[in-house]
Amino acid sequence: MTVSASIAAISLSAIVAIWLGYPLLVWALAQFSGSSSVDRSNAHKRSVSVILATRDRAEIVAARIANLLSTDHPAHLVEVIVALDAEGAQCNVSDLEGIDSRVRAVVGDAPGGKAAALNAGVRIASGEILVLSDAQQRYDTRTIPELVASLEDQRFGAVSGALQLGGDAAGKSPVDWYWTMEKWLRHNEARLHSSVGVTGAVYATRRALWPVVPAGTLLDDVYVPMSLVLRGHRVGFSYAARAFDVRTFDATNEGVRKTRTLTGVMQLRELLPDLLSVKRNPIAAQFFAHKVLRLLTPALGAVFALSMLVLSVQLALIATTQERWIAVGVVIVLLALPFTRRRILGLAGWIISLQMATTRAIINGLGGRWGVWSKPRS
Q1: Using CA atoms, how far apart are residues 270 and 16, in angstroms rounded to an integer?
Q2: What was the pLDDT predicted at 167?
Q3: pTM above 0.70, yes or no
Q4: C-alpha 194: how far from its chain's center?
């Protein structure tokens, strides 16, 4: 085996280990975790405050409020707190008056941002259980009851629901496949100990445990659960508590979102310095494997691509003329056929966009540039 082939094999193996090996290891270890029976009969007695942090237009917010109130949880025990972003909100508190007696609105703290809005919303909440939601998704009637029931297990300080995207099986994008894998991984992490992060559009925690999220925090849905883990709690996952998102995301949209989330991972190292401490964080190894190692993907991908290029040149030099023409012909045919061309170019676009997003996030993190919030085009 040549040096270039060895390097290609090693870099590819590292990528596979990060994205497939770690999830499989967690799944294997989770098989040895015992399950405990939890009495969920009192879940319907818990009061719930649904916190909707948003900067969206009034009609979007109103539609989401109606969806949140359409729940199987007892109506008199549910309230919705609309926390309007102090910076850039497209509706006012007055726009939401009179919608329902169970709805209250508040303007988030200065200087703005989702974290500041969440803190303001939690301050006026009265429910024993907090359900955190976003404006663009929708719940079914069982989502809130399932989140509340999952917290009847006193080991858990928070529980994440499952984000379900709208793509059908025949037209799944890389984002759909990513979330399918991510939900499976979080489910198994929670069986082992705790899910590393929750889905910001659908998770719950106890109001008494809410940590004040620092203003400017990019990933409240990782900061909150990891704060609880550092305080001795566990973070669960429920497939039955679903949030539905029918929007579609292209490579550009996903690249913007990924830049923000991966920059947020690096920011967390500053906000929660004990995250990688094996003494303070019982899931330090999982956090490192799940969040930190993924940041190495662009470098490993670049090494793999460069070594494969060198290997291709080496093989071309020793190939016969006939073999070279066959190789060229295969490439031409693949690019000439519309179906394969779209697949190849589409996949290449996704790979390039996401790797560029990771690279930008690393640059942001090394430079301490945390002001990268940007809302993907809906």
Answers
A1: 28
A2: 52
A3: yes
A4: 15
